[in-house]
Amino acid sequence: MTTLTDTPTTRVPAPAPALDTETLRRLPKAVLHDHLDGALRPSTLLELAGAVGHRLPAGDPAALADWFRAAAGSGDLVRYIATFEHTLAVLQTREGLLRAAEEYVLDLAADGVVHAEVRYAPELMVKGGLGLAEVVETVQEGLAAGAAKAAAGGTPVRVGTLLCGMRMFDRCREVAELAVAYRDAGVVGFDIAGAEDGFPPADHLDAFAYLRRENMPFTIHAGEAHGLPSIHQALQVCGAQRIGHGVRIMDDIVDGRPGRLAAWIRDRRVALEMCPTSNLQTGAAGSIAGHPITALRDLGFRVTLNTDNRLVSGTTMTREMELLVREADWTAADLRTVTVNALESAFLPYAERRALIEDVVLPGYAAVL
Q1: Residue 359 annotated as binding?
Q2: Which residues contact 110 (CB under 8 A, 6 or more apart)?
Q3: pTM score, two decimals?
Q4: 37 appears as a binding residue in the annotation
Q5: Cα-based angle 142, 146, 148 (whole degrees, multiple of 5)
Q6: Of 63, 107, 165, 305, which is least surrounded by CB within 10 A?
Q7: Is 66 annotated among the ligand-binding residues?
Q8: Which of the following is catalytic: 103, 117, 177, 224?
């Protein structure tokens, strides 16, 4: 007689949970490439613009958000950057900087971000009479206020600051010195930003040599609007530890085989700060499905996922993840990988990186998935 216990059974694995928007939002995230002046809330921008008398191209939050996305989606990096005249107009006062920085952290917390590195160019925020040091101190004060509120709400966020020098101007060394001066006050690194084509990173060797002498980490925007020479200079001439965007590294990969520069980047685990939605807007990539982040992930590069500019690109980390899941067939394991990649390359002490990975990210994924 055969009983129920005698009947052979096949164990069917539980189906993977659906990666819907709310599930993705709850996943712990790390973002390395995010600009403060591209991340204001539309409603805040409207209020601050009214206070300083700056005229905006739209008069309500939804229409303003739509305008930014449309204006930034021209396929041209220079036109993309031009939209920042409106956000920078309201970041020239202490009040504007404090509010933007505080709300930035709260928006990260709502997005499930546990570590962020936010960047901005202090030299673009002094038209209202603030000095460079005052700008840095004010932003740090706002970030600290936001972090305190996020922690009190049960969603702590660790935020470090990168100071940007503008590659088409001549204050990069000055800003590099500012970054070192505030390294114990929340500034964790340096970057150069602005129009890439025609303004090679090697123009600012003095700043990068100074940062290396001072043991200050830095990343460089490269391989977005210009190709392999820009990436090569950033790494081999200037000494960057990470690359902002880097999508043009695909020019050095033929039939799935990396060339010498691409292999060097992969083998030495140089993080690529990739920003899919932004890259579509500037013409650096043609689609989410065909974005280099997936091919580079499959080839073993240390890719990271980022927002670049939350307002200008109309995005969040949750949305970037959702796009990759829906249009490029990414899995939860893929998202966990890029999150761990980001923390492995964060400008944080080793012990803090490991603690975020082992105590926050991995348990967070296990709890949700």
Answers
A1: no
A2: 155
A3: 0.92
A4: yes
A5: 115
A6: 63
A7: no
A8: 224
